[in-house]
UniProtKB/TrEMBL annotation, chains A, B:
It holds the Pfam family PhyH. It comes from the Bacteria. This is L-proline 4-hydroxylase. GO terms for molecular function: 2-oxoglutarate-dependent dioxygenase activity; iron ion binding. InterPro entries: Phytyl_CoA_dOase-like.
Length: 270, 270
């Protein structure tokens, strides 16, 4: 699949692009099963709820689960990313977040690239984020909220670099926009949040200002975010690098599969 | 103004009814000015932010501000309430809530009537709530979320009556629905949240299950809620009654004004 000229222009203009129902119900089922399998696999890639049994997030499932190792090369996902970037790409970060019912702390308004610049010394904002809805996303279950067009202004503030140490998770306060700055940006750009059925996909810029509301619904909401980075734009660390399940080290260029991610997996029992 | 048969049926069916842009921009301006005037009036009716200068809510402004004393008798508001109830009505509670930017704690899912039964020993759910938008309400600034039709099941649980003492504000935990119960209700009824420009009005049942999301926007959002109660359905207290600015004691039947709430106020300087 290739993006149309109109879709490319929408992405450049707004900083994000919704591809409604890109994956079908069967494909979503398979991805959910693989997510659960990865949740059941012990290891540091799992982020567990405080004091709890529930897994809140997993990293780098594409390194363990065939469905995801293939999904990141599915041409419906990879080809649009290649269109939006210049150089070859690899997976810089892979995360599935299960936002719990009745909460899931809201994530302060921020720009991803600032976090990666601070944490990983990433040279340029040469990334595309691909968000894959593993559940329906509605206004009630903590959708991501964008300020459309805000990516065109570059980084809106500097963050708190000096106080930040290398760690797995940045403190949102280190990178969150000051309220007055955000108010200016909302005045100029407004707010919007793409929604859609499970299987929908949102491509978004590493420089777009975004936040996300808490999940007010009684059901968890699973969201995959794959970040592709250009192979010529590698991170480097002054101190201790972040773990390799958080920042992937395999920067070999990805090539699209011939078919879809399930094509060679159909015989595998679900 | 009278509700049409279709509107009456919508209210009975869904437990709420949106009246889009019922008040015009000039009227909203006057109400905002009167709200600010009441915020500047010292007294226990003002709920102030923790450690702060900002007023988060005011009670019973209709006892001090002419705009509000007349608004509660404006026929566009009072006549629909009279249609929905049987007996004469009075104002049981009047509150304007300014939900602060970037937060405003989310209010747990609950039914108003349970709170009033516990706090004020109110005999029957013979009330109508009238919410007046003093700012535009969007999906981003903490709209009220309803489970449409949930009022038809009556009270969904009993709350924690025994532990509750008489106080101005109920602890949301005393009346909030258990997660499993809410999940069942959401499965059956879904979720919806009426939105609209400032001046819009939502009528809603004291038995409808509702919650409200935090305000993710950088601007405060002001919402007036007037609760009308039937004059034959008065509260009584076993212990200390709640203060009279929270639970109004004047239960004389209200009669609609001849004109709109501003008709006799237009000469007053804003």
């Amino acid at each position: 699949m290739r993006l149309t000229q109109e879709q490319l222009e929408q992405y450049q203009e707004n900083g994000f692009l919704l591809l409604d129902s890109l994956l079908d119900g069967h494909e979503v089922d398979r991805l959910r099963t693989a997510f659960q399998r990865d949740c059941d696999t012990p290891g540091p890639h799992r982020i567990v709820e405080e004091g709890g049994a529930a897994v809140r997030a997993v990293y780098s499932s594409h390194q363990r689960q065939a469905e995801y190792s293939r999904l990141v090369r599915d041409p419906r996902v990879l080809a649009p990313v290649q269109q939006l970037l210049t150089d070859d790409v690899y997976v810089y970060q892979f995360k599935i977040n299960a936002k719990p019912a009745f909460g899931g702390e809201k994530w302060a308004w921020h720009q991803d690239f600032l976090a990666w610049q601070i944490s990983d010394n990433l040279p340029a904002p040469a990334q595309v984020n691909v968000a894959v809805f593993l559940d329906d996303v509605t206004e009630f279950n903590g959708p991501v909220i964008f300020l459309p067009g805000s990516h065109r202004e570059g980084l809106a503030h500097e963050g708190r670099k000096s106080e930040v140490k290398s760690e797995q998770h940045l403190d949102p306060d280190d990178i969150s926009l000051p309220p007055q700055r955000l108010a200016e940006l909302v005045d100029r750009h407004g707010m919007t949040s793409p929604k859609g059925p499970a299987g929908s996909v949102v491509l978004f810029s590493p420089e777009i200002v975004h936040g996300s509301a808490p999940n007010m619904s009684p059901f968890a909401r699973r969201l995959l975010i794959v970040t592709y980075n250009e192979v010529s734009n590698l991170p480097s660390w002054r101190g201790e690098p972040r773990p390799d399940y958080v920042v992937c080290r395999d920067s070999a260029p990805l090539a699209p599969l011939d078919g879809t991610f399930l094509d060679d997996l159909e015989e595998v029992a679900v």
